[in-house]
Amino acid sequence: MEFLTEFGLFIAKTITLVVALLVIVSVVLSAAHKDKDDQGSDGELRVRKLNEKYRKLRESLQAKLRSDSERKAFEKARKKEDKAKQKAEKAKRKSGDAEEKPRPKVYVLDFDGDIKASDTDSLRRSITAVLSVAEPETDEVVIRLESGGGLVHSYGLAAAQLDRIRAKGIRLTACVDKVAASGGYMMACVADRIVASPFAILGSIGVVAQLPNFHRLLKKNDVDFEILTAGEHKRTMTVFGENTDKGRTKFLEDLEDTHVLFKEYVGERRPELDIAAV
């Protein structure tokens, strides 16, 4: 019996030691992971040359549409052409007769917006990278935009990123395949021009807010809910407390102020637009 007791104590100590070691390892790994996240918090940018992508696609289709003998002749001619082009460019660089004017470039960015405009941070990094190399006189930025809108402050920040492109004097085009409404349109209207598909939804220059209220349910079940505030309008509408007409009026005033700011923002970037008619 004494042996079993000592053995049990030994097992308990061993388990305690193992658990302690696991906790320490877990903490160390967690800290290391956090440091890694902090170091890589800026994420990464992926750059693709779209002209190369579509050139390869075209050549692949051209090759598939030819017979075996035609394909071989086509590949041979293409390689010969590429070699001659590289040779000519090398000779031009060697003679110092290269063109002084840079070739115009189009930088294509994507923004897929959710209610929080979560893609804003990625957009900010992309725009910072583009602005470091783009030439105002020749280059253009195209943003492929899709968003049904969302939080006012989030989309205000996203639109401000596009304002940086305009501020640098670089042409900006917004392409909308499906929808750029509300906050999405706030972003689109920054562009010099908007190119939209025939059935795309654009506009909706308005502000909306909605929230459920559980006050009557709580009251029915004898549950009290208290909100303590300092300041007359610190809390105008609440989910669990009883909403008042005064609170609703103030909340509507805030919505209207935001709506006025939205219309002014659009009007500044689309001066030819009749905001009242829209």
Note the main attributes of this structure.
278 residues; 2-enoyl-CoA Hydratase, Chain A, domain 1; alpha/beta; two-stranded parallel ribbon; 8 helices
Q: What's the SSE blueprint?
A:
Elements: H1 2-39, H2 50-64, H3 68-95, E1 106-112, H4 120-131, E2 140-146, H5 152-167, E3 171-176, E4 179-181, H6 183-188, E5 193-196, E6 201-203, H7 215-220, H8 245-269
Parallel strand pairs: 1-2, 2-3, 3-5, 4-6
Helix pairs in contact: 4-5
Overview of this protein structure:
By secondary structure, this protein is of the alpha/beta class. The chain is built from eight helices and six strands, in the order αααβαβαββαββαα. Among the domains are: 99 residues, 2-enoyl-CoA Hydratase, Chain A, domain 1, CATH 3.90.226.10; 73 residues, no CATH class. It has a four-stranded parallel β-sheet.
Average predicted confidence as pLDDT: 84
Q: What profile does the largest beta sheet have?
A: 4 strands, parallel
Structural class: alpha/beta
Q: For the largest beta sheet, what order do the strands appear in spatially?
A: 1-2-3-5
From the N-terminal CA to the C-terminal CA, the straight-line distance is: 90 Å
State the helical fraction: 40-55%
Order of helices and strands: HHHEHEHEEHEEHH
The CATH homologous superfamily of the domain at 106-204 corresponds to: 2-enoyl-CoA Hydratase, Chain A, domain 1
List the uncertain runs.
none
Radius of gyration: 31 Å
Report the count of strand segments: 6
Strand content: 5-15%
Overall spatial form: extended
